[in-house]
């Protein structure tokens, strides 16, 4: 199997594909969009490139791919978009591909790249009924603790930082709730592509909440009046702020 590779270079003469053999031991790892390291010319160091196509054979004498970055950031749709951008804006395809890479991952040295970020999430360990009963029985008296628990009852899970900000509670309050067994704090990795494993079903009509409807009306009225400006949607992570955005499209 042959991979067509675009080298990560600003040189215009290198803004084309080069054929490389996919070794048997890398066959399962190399895909369209893969970041690969290949020998080029007489250079001792390997060059970085991106696989933009795969085919059965080549009419040239080819060298093998030496390494593959198994972290997947770029996919076939990104390659298609990069080719369109390069043609539209008269630039190298590799420059367009690099624009789609997450910040901190554009360096050619893998060891220097920023790793996936770990963040703290807070979720309930007890049911709503159990918590409400303990609030009614005055087992939970702190107004701050109750405020944090009510917030989590509504959103089920929240970023630690969001819980602090939107419930207006301190870190010590949250940790106290953890010690008492009401909440659980877990470290989770933030995925670079949150839609990778998600199947999004098309919907004909979105039902907006009161707050979303107000946000939508503000933006829609500005568009109708030909008043173009920037709008900030402020809300807790996971509160479906994007619904207002989709509704304006």
Keywords:
6-stranded mixed sheet, 249 residues, alpha+beta, 3-stranded antiparallel sheet
Number of strands: 9
Helical region count? 8
**Which structural class do you get from the secondary structure elements?**
alpha+beta
Pattern of helices and strands: EEEEEEHHEHHEHHEHH
For the termini, the CA-CA separation is: 43 Å
The major beta sheet can be summarized as: 6 strands, mixed
- Cα gyration radius (Å): 25 Å
The average pLDDT value, as a whole number, equals 84
Task: Identify the overall geometry.
Answer: elongated
Strand order of the largest sheet: 5-2-1-4-3-6
Helix content estimate = 25-40%
User: Which strand-content bin applies to the residues?
Assistant: 15-25%
**Uncertain runs with pLDDT below 50, 5 residues or more?**
244-249
Reconstruct the topology from this structure.
Blueprint: E1 2-7, E2 17-21, E3 35-38, E4 47-55, E5 63-64, E6 67-69, H1 76-89, H2 93-99, E7 118-124, H3 128-136, H4 143-155, E8 157-159, H5 160-167, H6 171-179, E9 183-189, H7 210-224, H8 242-248
Parallel strand pairs: 2-5
Antiparallel strand pairs: 1-2, 1-4, 3-4, 3-6, 7-8, 7-9
Helix pairs in contact: 1-2, 4-5, 7-8
